[in-house]
Amino acid sequence: MPHTCISRLNRAAAVIVAALALLIAAGTHSRSVLADDAYPKVNPLSGKPDAIKAGRDLYWKFCVQCHGKHADGVSTRWGGYAKDLRKWRYGYPEFIVVVLNGRPKKRMPPWGGYLEEEEIAEIAAFLETLAIEGARWQ
Predict the structure, then answer these.
(1) What is the C-alpha radius of gyration for the chain, rounded to an integer number of angstroms?
(2) How many other CB atoms are there within 10 angstroms of residue 19's CB atom?
(3) pLDDT value at 26 more than 50
(4) Digit-coded pLDDT (tens) for 84-108
(5) What is the pLDDT of residue 43?
(6) Which one of 1.10.760.10, 1.10.418.60, 2.40.440.10, 1.20.120.80 gives the CATH number of domain 39-128?
């Protein structure tokens, strides 16, 4: 009887370890995999003049303080601290996720409570016009 009890405990422990391993594996998927599943691969507002103008206005309202007037990551407030958005290389879906959720470890606030996804797409449409070599928006 004690041997059966130990076998059951070993099986239960194995199941728990397997479940934890699955949870850990699920949690290690990169954001971009999740972003690619949730958002279009290409900005639907890309190249649209009205969206670009609206995106420029939104950028100046919400982003310029940290990313600078040229979106190069250099601002009068923080110096060269923020990401150079002209070199964005993670694709459009990841841009949406980063703006919505922020990057707290990098001191970027989440904008999900302030900006709608369409407004973020407008900002992206504007930033695409500033892209330099090596940038990847798609």
Answers:
(1) 21
(2) 10
(3) no
(4) 999 999 999 999 999 999 999 988 9
(5) 95
(6) 1.10.760.10
> Would you call 103 helix, strand, or coil by DSSP?
strand
Distance CA 55, CA 125 (A): 6
Q: What residue ranges do the domains of the chain occupy? A: 2-29, 39-128
Spell out the residues 6+ positions from residue 8 whose beta carbon is closer than 8 angstroms to its own: none
Q: Report residue 22 as tokens.
A: 């699955």
3-state secondary structure 39-105: CCCCCCCCCCHHHHHHHHHHHHHHCHHHHCCCCCCCECCCECCCCCHHHCCCCHHHHHHHHHHCEHH
- 79 DSSP β-pair partners: 75
For the chain, what percentages of helix, strand and coil (3-state, to nearest 5) are there?
Answer: 60, 5, 40
Say how far apart CA 43 and CA 138 lie, in whole Å: 8
**Would you say residue 28 has pLDDT above 80?**
no
Instruction: Give the end-to-end CA distance of the chain in Å, rounded to a whole number.
Output: 62
Number of other CB atoms surrounding residue 59 within 10 Å: 20
In 3-state terms, what secondary structure has residue 114? coil
